Amino acid sequence: MILMSFMFLLAAAVNPAQKIQEIKSDGVIILCSGGESAVEVKWFKDNNNKEEEIKGHSNLTYEVKADQGIVKGFYRCEYETTVTKEKKKYVFFLRVQVCENCYELSRLRAAAVILGDVLFTGGVIFIIYRFTTKNSGGTQKRGTVNIPLDPKTRNNAVYSGIR
Question: What's the rounded Cα separation, in Å, for the pair 141 and 33?
Answer without folding.
Answer: 78
